[in-house]
């Protein structure tokens, strides 16, 4: 906007800028232009004369229209200006290059042009453009192109604009779109867009950080069924274990103080998919309203008290009012800090997924072990707990990988362990361990203190499972199972029935499933100690079991997998495909993943009892596996650790460098722990056990 030039044109003019006549045009270009013109000069002149004589009434109407246009919003009015690139973008020089007569002529031509009909304007512009060379046409293009650019999203209602954006599935495209303009950037901050993207990408906040392996050196499975909610119940009373823990709270979005009612209504009506704990709606609304009304009114009322006898009273009142305001401001700050953002949630989840595929931050711990064998592993957001065959339990920090403490007391190798607790509302962790010394030990993990030593088994404790922080079940090579009250340190039941070593266990609600070397699996009631069903069908030892409350899945040395009904004990299906021992199972909904000594991984659909992915993953036995709804990680005795796309059965990458053998692997959403053995130097008999901690939440590193 150049005031020095705008005096030539009325300030309310809505027409595009006109190009002034050139005083230095060559005769050759003029002759060529006149020869290519489609309308003669006499025709245009006669049209202009006719228009001047017949449109006086139109001029009066236009004057009224111009007067009304002054009331239009300033952003909808087009600016009249002339920018000559040859003048260095300085229109003020125009008055110095043209004399007064030519400037007056330009104003007259412009006024005449505005009085033309649309057809006459088109003919007039066509004649002018025919008189222009390429340089002038390029200049005209620089004036026209920006005016033809329309922000289509800005022209739409907010709801329709967001609906258009909902069809974009690629977050990188949305990120680039946010850089287009300030309006697009603000539009893409709307939570509904990112909520839909979270649904499309199936990003869930499951808050399940405890990953458990407790079946010794040959069996490692994770049961991510609904039973996990009940397994984490730490109530003292067994009868309270059936409390419904699926109820979730909703977040109340605070009132938005904009004048756009559609935005306010849309944001207030969007229900969050990933709830977090917070205050009740009435408390939140009263907090904001009191902050905006009562606090300030109390200050005003205190300042209006009589000045004759209230100087001290005024001071005390102001101090109390300000302290109340500061307290409420702090509460509002804490509330805003806890507001859930789908945009931030999606960004974090997407970046974590990208780090999984490309590689995260790796911490290698090579000074905590010698060459001992690793038998068991579990970790959460605070502790990594490792059981070894050298009688020790080693505890590491999950954030740094530093060794915290060593729990000593077992007189033989530790073959099974598990801990419960560590949640936000239950920070105390109880660890249970068992091994070759036939003892079961109960530890206060946070303090590293031994609580109980439970004796009764007559052979190695080979497997154990905790129902909660009160009840634990152990299985032994003495062919018995024992149910313990680990709070009081007493035996509740001895489960008799198996005829050989109890190799694997799994718990759901008050039912425990066991697999044995006697070729059978059994279901037991923890409360009564009674055997509910004997599951038969295998021809050799059972090494792995998975139980979700409805189905019992067993893996055997006979290379088959059997699926049983938990309610009737009948065999529903026998799954063939592995050619050797099936030592690893994980059940998640209707998806089962199995790993065998043949080096193969198989993904099964238990609705149709079909193998949907067959992966020749390793050159030796699978020693550990785990999967979620997107990925699968497997480790093998061939020393490799591989990451797979479980939906496509495709190898994504090798997570770690090749080693001699991989003992254990466990992962959460953001971390992975790998325990492996590597050769030291050229000596084939010199091996060292190391721990690798992979962190994929790079924002927290």
Automatic annotation (TrEMBL):
<feature type="repeat" description="WD">
    <location>
        <begin position="454"/>
        <end position="494"/>
    </location>
</feature>
<dbReference type="InterPro" id="IPR001680">
    <property type="entry name" value="WD40_rpt"/>
</dbReference>
<feature type="region of interest" description="Disordered">
    <location>
        <begin position="227"/>
        <end position="266"/>
    </location>
</feature>
<protein>
    <recommendedName>
        <fullName>F-box domain-containing protein</fullName>
    </recommendedName>
</protein>
<dbReference type="InterPro" id="IPR020472">
    <property type="entry name" value="WD40_PAC1"/>
</dbReference>
<keyword id="KW-0677">Repeat</keyword>
<feature type="repeat" description="WD">
    <location>
        <begin position="575"/>
        <end position="614"/>
    </location>
</feature>
<dbReference type="GO" id="GO:0042393">
    <property type="term" value="F:histone binding"/>
</dbReference>
<dbReference type="GO" id="GO:0048188">
    <property type="term" value="C:Set1C/COMPASS complex"/>
</dbReference>
<dbReference type="Pfam" id="PF00400">
    <property type="entry name" value="WD40"/>
</dbReference>
<feature type="repeat" description="WD">
    <location>
        <begin position="407"/>
        <end position="453"/>
    </location>
</feature>
<dbReference type="InterPro" id="IPR036047">
    <property type="entry name" value="F-box-like_dom_sf"/>
</dbReference>
<dbReference type="InterPro" id="IPR015943">
    <property type="entry name" value="WD40/YVTN_repeat-like_dom_sf"/>
</dbReference>
<dbReference type="InterPro" id="IPR019775">
    <property type="entry name" value="WD40_repeat_CS"/>
</dbReference>
<feature type="compositionally biased region" description="Low complexity">
    <location>
        <begin position="21"/>
        <end position="71"/>
    </location>
</feature>
<feature type="domain" description="F-box">
    <location>
        <begin position="150"/>
        <end position="197"/>
    </location>
</feature>
<feature type="repeat" description="WD">
    <location>
        <begin position="615"/>
        <end position="654"/>
    </location>
</feature>
<dbReference type="InterPro" id="IPR001810">
    <property type="entry name" value="F-box_dom"/>
</dbReference>
<feature type="repeat" description="WD">
    <location>
        <begin position="495"/>
        <end position="534"/>
    </location>
</feature>
<dbReference type="InterPro" id="IPR036322">
    <property type="entry name" value="WD40_repeat_dom_sf"/>
</dbReference>
<dbReference type="Pfam" id="PF12937">
    <property type="entry name" value="F-box-like"/>
</dbReference>
<keyword id="KW-0853">WD repeat</keyword>
<feature type="region of interest" description="Disordered">
    <location>
        <begin position="1"/>
        <end position="76"/>
    </location>
</feature>
<feature type="compositionally biased region" description="Low complexity">
    <location>
        <begin position="244"/>
        <end position="261"/>
    </location>
</feature>
<feature type="repeat" description="WD">
    <location>
        <begin position="535"/>
        <end position="574"/>
    </location>
</feature>
């Amino acid at each position: 906007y150049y005031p020095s030039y705008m005096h030539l044109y009325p300030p309310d003019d809505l027409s595009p800028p006109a190009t002034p006549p050139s005083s230095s045009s060559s005769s050759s270009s003029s002759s060529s232009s006149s020869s290519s013109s489609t309308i003669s000069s006499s025709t245009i002149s006669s049209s202009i004369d006719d228009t001047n004589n017949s449109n006086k009434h139109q001029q009066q109407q236009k004057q009224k229209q111009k007067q009304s246009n002054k009331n239009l919003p300033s952003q909808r009015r087009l600016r009249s200006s002339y920018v000559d690139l040859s003048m260095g973008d300085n229109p003020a020089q125009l008055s110095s290059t043209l004399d007064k007569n030519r400037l007056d002529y330009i104003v007259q031509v412009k006024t005449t042009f505005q009085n033309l009909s649309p057809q006459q304007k088109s003919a007039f512009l066509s004649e002018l453009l025919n008189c222009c060379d390429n340089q002038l046409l390029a200049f005209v293009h620089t004036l026209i192109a920006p005016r033809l650019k329309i922000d289509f999203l800005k022209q739409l209602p907010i709801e329709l604009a967001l609906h258009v954006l909902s069809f974009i599935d690629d977050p990188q495209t949305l990120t680039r779109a946010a850089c287009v303009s300030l309006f697009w950037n603000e539009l893409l901050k709307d939570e509904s867009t990112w909520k839909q993207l979270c649904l499309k990408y199936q990003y869930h906040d499951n808050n399940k950080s405890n990953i458990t392996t407790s079946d010794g050196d040959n069996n490692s499975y994770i049961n991510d069924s609904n039973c996990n909610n009940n397994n984490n119940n730490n109530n003292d009373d067994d009868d309270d274990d059936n409390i419904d823990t699926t109820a979730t709270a909703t977040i109340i979005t605070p009132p938005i103080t904009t004048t756009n009612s559609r935005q306010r209504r849309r944001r207030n009506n969007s229900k969050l998919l990933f709830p977090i704990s917070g205050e009740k709606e009435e408390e939140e609304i009263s907090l904001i309203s009191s902050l905006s009304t009562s606090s300030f009114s109390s200050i005003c009322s205190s300042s209006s008290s009589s000045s004759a006898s209230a100087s001290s009273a005024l001071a005390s009142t102001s101090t109390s009012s300000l302290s109340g305001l500061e307290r409420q401001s702090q509460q509002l700050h804490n509330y805003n800090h806890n507001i859930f953002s789908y945009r931030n949630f999606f960004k974090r989840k997407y970046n974590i997924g990208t780090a999984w595929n490309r590689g995260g931050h790796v911490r290698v711990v090579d000074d905590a072990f010698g060459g001992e064998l690793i038998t068991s592993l579990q970790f959460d957001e605070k502790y990594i707990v490792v059981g070894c065959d050298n009688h020790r339990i080693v505890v590491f920090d999950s954030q740094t990988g530093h060794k915290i403490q060593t729990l000593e007391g077992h007189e033989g190798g530790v073959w099974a362990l598990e801990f419960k607790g560590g949640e936000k509302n239950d920070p105390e962790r109880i660890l249970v361990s068992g091994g070759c010394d036939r003892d079961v030990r109960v530890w206060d993990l946070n303090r590293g203190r031994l609580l109980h030593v439970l004796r009764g088994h007559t052979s190695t404790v080979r497997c154990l499972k905790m129902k909660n922080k009160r009840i634990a079940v152990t299985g032994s090579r003495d062919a018995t199972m024992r149910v313990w009250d680990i709070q009081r340190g007493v035996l509740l039941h001895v489960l008799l029935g198996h005829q050989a070593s109890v190799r694997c266990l799994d718990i759901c609600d008050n039912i425990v499933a066991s697999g044995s070397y006697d070729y059978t699996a059994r279901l037991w009631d923890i409360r009564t100690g009674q055997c509910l069903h004997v599951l038969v069908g295998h021809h050799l030892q059972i090494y792995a079991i998975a139980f979700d409350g409805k189905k019992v899945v067993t893996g055997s040395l006979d290379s088959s997998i059997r699926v049983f009904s938990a309610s009737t004990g009948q065999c529903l299906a026998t799954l063939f495909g592995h050619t050797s021992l099936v030592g690893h199972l994980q059940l998640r909904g209707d998806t089962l993943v199995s790993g065998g000594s043949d080096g193969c991984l198989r993904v099964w659909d238990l609705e149709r009892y079909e193998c949907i992915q067959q992966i020749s993953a390793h050159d030796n036995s699978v020693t550990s596996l785990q999967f979620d709804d997107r990925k699968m990680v497997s480790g093998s005795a061939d020393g490799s650790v591989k990451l797979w796309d479980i939906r496509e059965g495709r190898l994504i990458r090798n997570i770690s460098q090749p080693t001699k053998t991989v003992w254990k692997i466990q992962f959460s959403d953001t971390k992975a722990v790998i325990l492996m053995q590597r050769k030291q130097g050229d000596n084939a008999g010199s091996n060292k056990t190391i721990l690798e901690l992979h962190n994929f939440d790079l924002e927290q590193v």
